[in-house]
Amino acid sequence: MELISKMMFALLLFASCSSDDTFNISKASSLQPAVEITSRLTLELSTDKALYAPGQTISFSVKGNLPAGATVRYRHGADVVEEQPLSGSTWTWTAPSQDFTGYLVDIYTKNGSGETVYGTIAVDVSSDWNRFPRYGFVATYDKSKTQKTIDAEMALLNRYHINGVQFYDWHYAHHQPYTPDAVYTDIANREIDADVVRRYISAQHGYGMKSMFYNLCYGALDNAAQNGVKDQWYLYKDQSHSKKDCLNMSSDWKSDIYLTDPNNTDWQKYLAAQNKDVYEHFDFDGYHIDQVGDRGTVYDFYGNTVNLPSGFANFIKAMKQAEPGKRLVMNAVANYGQLNIANTGDVDFLYSELWGGESQFADLLSILNQNRSYRPGAGQVYAAYMDYECNDKSEFNTPGVLLTDAVMFAIGADHLELGDHMLCHEYFPNSHLAMSDDLKSQLVCYYDFFTAYEDLLRVEGQQNDDDIYTTSSDVTIANWPPRLGTVTAYTKTVDDKKVVNLLNFVNANSLSWRDLKGDMPGPQQIDGLTLAVKAGNVKRIWVASPDCYGGVAQELHFEKNGDRVVFTVPMLKYWSMIVIEQ
Questions:
Q1: SS3 138
Q2: Distance (Å, whole) CA 579 – CA 582
Q3: Taking residues 486-504, what's their average pLDDT?
Q4: Of 481, 488, 485, residue with least CA distance to 577
Q5: How many whole angstroms from its chain centre is CA 487?
Q6: Which pairs with CB-CB distance under 8 Å and at least 24 residues apart come from 375-379?
Q7: Residue among 350, 344, 285 nearest 133 (CA)
Q8: Which end of the chain is more exposed for a tag (fewer CB within 10 A), N or C?
Q9: Model-level pTM?
């Protein structure tokens, strides 16, 4: 059936051409890029911030030997905003006036009619992190975190353009996060050095990142009564308040965690006062609020059924009222309570922790669209733990991570995964899996790409399901959702641009983003993929990919044929983005 449809498509293309301008498939397949690009990515670029306000000075540095005739170029999409000869290892550029816009900066030389790219880096010009959040974390604060270690970790997060950091389990107790002790223990009896926490915050602020302290919205330890927590504030599993709702922790931890009622105004006032102590002693920018998902039927002290999602919203509003100048983010476990969280309007963006019930690649877009309906324009972050069952391995599976990031980034969602290590578990200090050097370097390209093209990737646009045809007999193009053995096309229109994200599932072995066993195979690279896409009056077509040329845009020659435009994508590995400017 697929072969027949391709033959019919080829005949229709031929038949629709006039005798004066005959077009055939072989001609389409021989279309070459307008400018031939080669890459020798030998230069390492860096910037002094994770994001910049419009008009702010951006400082760049480069490591490596600059080639003769090197030029630095600043691009928005495929448009060259500015370029200048480059002779030194440091330079500056003034951020353009357009807010919430990404740019790709590359160093290149001209090579006859072509170009050679030697290094690239993205720049995010955004006055606030909340539009395009790129969220990271830290989870260990003992004396092993020397200033040198902290500086190296935060420099790496800055290179990934991480613009906000969650401080996981930094606190003394859930009901008493601040303690005056210089060194104390967290719930797992890990050592926490308060000065390490402060030095992390200082380093992050130096890069323009937000520092967010983590805590549950409703947690108390078994000694909480000594600190003024009342029995009337808890959640109960029965109507006679004889059994508190509880999270059972390991026996070598300080305590189990008993859940309080986030609706209870006295609890809200109590924790707001505790948070005031936090803000007075640590320069945190805000509060990352956690929950643990659907608890089934739970009751307050008086036997009334508790509506937890409503309680989340009430809790958020109380925290905002107590500290209006501080930022808030709240986790929605399996997206539980997200409607109520979003409707407060008081969280900087929407954050969803995904599990087995949301394990398919198709779920990523479904949840994103659902959350956009709750709060249009809000940024989306997914906490999604890769290789979760790889207990017998020491490294992440690079193909699984890159395919998952490709899909998340292509649809416009951030992936919480990077910190003082890479996340593989909901208990953030768990670091039994490490990134290979290859994964580290490839993720630099992915986060550059996600940042440079943020105002195409992360703007909602209008999803488009027009059929996309190919003349390749061994490649099937399928519209979203992903299908095994195909190239999936996620297409949307943003202003006058048709954005086609091609995601390579040809060699994939699963439609789950989790890659539980770490066995997702590497992709089958596809070269010279000729496509026909429905389009109006086309001004320009260009392609870019995090998998080649450091993400630099490459303009493509094209032929118009009826209501379709035909062009050839030079290469598809994991992900290529085609932009048709109409």
A1: strand
A2: 9
A3: 97
A4: 488
A5: 22
A6: 375/342, 375/343, 375/345, 375/350, 376/460, 377/131, 377/460, 378/342, 378/349, 378/350, 379/130, 379/131, 379/132, 379/133, 379/348, 379/349, 379/350, 379/414, 379/458
A7: 350
A8: N
A9: 0.94
